[in-house]
Amino acid sequence: VNVGCVPKKVMWNTAVHAEFIHDHADYGFETPAVNFNWRTIKEKRDAYVRRLNDIYENNVKKARIDIIRGYGKFTTDPEPTIEVDGKKYTAPHILIATGGRPTIPSNSEIPGANLGMTSDGFFDLEELPRHSVVVGAGYIAVEMVGILSTLGSKSSLLIRHDKVV
């Protein structure tokens, strides 16, 4: 919800609007110069995500579900038990929502790695980059490069290619 599906869909829809505007003349519409403001969509997107977070958390509270934040792991106790930051919790139903964090290589592993960002960093951008390079061939990479390109960033997509020897 925070750095994946929901904000990406907002940005995808933003790019769709840009593409529609680009095609208006083909359908007989005369449009004056249209300016795009990255900061406006970023602020509105981030506010939307915060509002969804509040709704989700309120719904969980209404359902009388306890949210325990921290590092958790299952124990070897006979009843279903987890330990979170040194405290044990037992319940008939336990959900560990792990989230995820990408592994970022060091500069010694990949020279220049510090110049890059993960797809999560895309949502922190304060302005549309004039140039962008997206590394990867998965659907997230393809969507991100499409969004950036459509909104006006000169974008490239780098894809690994294994050579046949």
Automatic annotation (TrEMBL):
<dbReference type="GO" id="GO:0005739">
    <property type="term" value="C:mitochondrion"/>
</dbReference>
<comment type="similarity">
    <text>Belongs to the class-I pyridine nucleotide-disulfide oxidoreductase family.</text>
</comment>
<dbReference type="Pfam" id="PF07992">
    <property type="entry name" value="Pyr_redox_2"/>
</dbReference>
<keyword id="KW-1015">Disulfide bond</keyword>
<keyword id="KW-0560">Oxidoreductase</keyword>
<dbReference type="GO" id="GO:0050660">
    <property type="term" value="F:flavin adenine dinucleotide binding"/>
</dbReference>
<feature type="domain" description="FAD/NAD(P)-binding">
    <location>
        <begin position="1"/>
        <end position="164"/>
    </location>
</feature>
<dbReference type="GO" id="GO:0034599">
    <property type="term" value="P:cellular response to oxidative stress"/>
</dbReference>
<dbReference type="GO" id="GO:0045454">
    <property type="term" value="P:cell redox homeostasis"/>
</dbReference>
<dbReference type="InterPro" id="IPR046952">
    <property type="entry name" value="GSHR/TRXR-like"/>
</dbReference>
<keyword id="KW-0521">NADP</keyword>
<dbReference type="GO" id="GO:0006749">
    <property type="term" value="P:glutathione metabolic process"/>
</dbReference>
<protein>
    <submittedName>
        <fullName>GSHR protein</fullName>
    </submittedName>
</protein>
<keyword id="KW-0496">Mitochondrion</keyword>
<dbReference type="InterPro" id="IPR036188">
    <property type="entry name" value="FAD/NAD-bd_sf"/>
</dbReference>
<dbReference type="GO" id="GO:0004362">
    <property type="term" value="F:glutathione-disulfide reductase (NADPH) activity"/>
</dbReference>
<keyword id="KW-0963">Cytoplasm</keyword>
<dbReference type="InterPro" id="IPR023753">
    <property type="entry name" value="FAD/NAD-binding_dom"/>
</dbReference>
<dbReference type="GO" id="GO:0005829">
    <property type="term" value="C:cytosol"/>
</dbReference>
<keyword id="KW-0676">Redox-active center</keyword>
